[in-house]
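Researcher: Structure prediction, please.
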Amino acid sequence: MGLFDKFKKIQNNDSAENSKMIAEIFRIICKGKESVDAEIAECTNSTKDYAEKNKVQFSERGISSDDADADTLMWIGCVDILINNSYAAELDFSCEVEDLIFSIGKLESFSAENITLDVKDFSYDDDITVWLDELDKKLTERGLCIGGIDIDSDSYVVFLTDINTLGKLKDSACSIGRRIDYAKNL
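Model: Predicted structure follows.
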């Protein structure tokens, strides 16, 4: 085994550990829902096959399974799984308050927590960061917040979680070179 073969092996082991961490992060966000968990497992265990099967979805994000590394494919694939199953919502940085309320209101976790939002509680003159901050202030009394998943774009991928869990997700994502934080901070 040459020097470069050893390096490749180390990289693969790191990727395997990242795969486990990515799967765990996204399982926590979807609260271990079995059907979503199965999709996450497929994405993180057979990443290239998953990316090929979902190449249209990846290409809409400007990602090719031939060019992107496995960790990026897993991260983006799992983000899309959450979005497709209503555990996260993707919002443009220039969205209107109605878009924010509508998208967040459709999340499974909002229904489970019996949270209702009213557009009248937000100023039309503000922007998404202000609205997310206002939402966090309203949710704090319940121990909840709006988390955000960084996908290296100008959109916000948001999800509802409890404040303690967000701290753990933030640390876990950081440990693999990714970012999860309060959505208002992205």
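Model: The first strand starts at residue 89 and ends at 92.
Researcher: Thanks, that helps.
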